[in-house]
Design a protein that fits this description.
Elements lengths: L12 H21 L2 H5 L3 H14 L1 H4 L5 H24 L1 H8 L3 E5 L2 E2 L1 H6 L4 H10 L8 E6 L5 E5 L22 E5 L2 E2 L1 H6 L4 H10 L8 E6 L5 E5 L4
Antiparallel strand pairs: 1-2, 1-3, 3-4, 5-6, 5-7, 7-8
Length: 237
């Protein structure tokens, strides 16, 4: 039987196959031992831990001079500190925020929090796409949107959007459409205006009705096929 556990200058084919099998078994137990939170809801600390564990686990396959002893020692050390940090995070709120991160409010009571969007490197298109993943196609329905430490965005709609639906009352409904962005951070999206067969002059007249004279005061503007305009102003306005 070829030597597979120690330091090997040149690994034979059988030795490599046996090492692969052992690494596969070790990788399975690594996945089982890491907390389920780390697998289903990756925080920054969890992501770094799993990335490092993966690199250490496959190291005997990448370099024959790396013995399994060299792999197991740092592996067990990281598991130990992972458990210690997890237990401290359960007891200490500040420590938990430091390692797992804090939730970031992206939409607060219907208003987009620009500083949090910029801090998280999220632009309008990305925010709208994340809302669509949450089954929200019209941003005017959103009361709160929170970026969680695991990277997911939680969405709370206005109460008026959670009332009895026409389906509950067996009432007919008209087809809905997806609003398009016509103003993006103070810039007009002309191709979307053409979709609704309106021009910049019409748009500015609608903004004037909302007491908005300068397009730069608008962070986001959306419009549906009924030409209903929804506007979110910049924080300073």
């Amino acid at each position: 039987m070829p030597d597979v556990f120690g330091v090997i200058e040149e690994i034979s084919l059988w030795g490599y196959l046996i090492r692969t099998l052992i690494v596969g078994v070790v990788g399975f137990f690594v996945g089982r031992l890491v907390s389920r939170r780390s697998v289903s809801q990756l925080t920054t600390y969890d992501f770094a831990l799993i990335w490092i564990l993966g690199a250490i686990t496959v190291s005997p396959l990448l370099d024959g001079k790396v013995s399994f002893t060299y792999m197991l020692v740092p592996l067990l050390t990281l598991f130990f500190w992972h458990i210690v940090f997890s237990l401290i995070s359960l007891k200490n709120r500040r420590f938990s925020f430091f390692f797992n991160g804090k939730p970031a409010i992206l939409i607060d009571n219907g208003r987009i929090v620009l500083k949090n969007l910029k801090r998280q490197f999220i632009n309008v298109e990305l925010l709208l796409s994340e809302l669509r993943v949450n089954d929200v196609f019209d941003i005017s329905q959103v009361k709160y949107a929170i970026l969680e430490p695991n990277g997911f965005i939680s969405v709370m709609k206005y109460d008026r959007e959670s009332h009895v639906t026409p389906k509950d009352l067996n009432l007919p409904v008209s087809a809905t459409d997806i609003p398009l962005v016509v103003i993006n951070e103070g810039k007009i999206v002309h191709e979307n205006l053409k979709e609704f067969q309106v021009d910049e002059g019409w748009l500015m007249s609608q903004l004037f009705k909302e007491n908005i004279a300068d397009i730069n005061d608008v962070f986001l503007g959306t419009m549906n096929k009924s030409k209903k305009l929804y506007v979110l102003k910049n924080e300073n306005n």
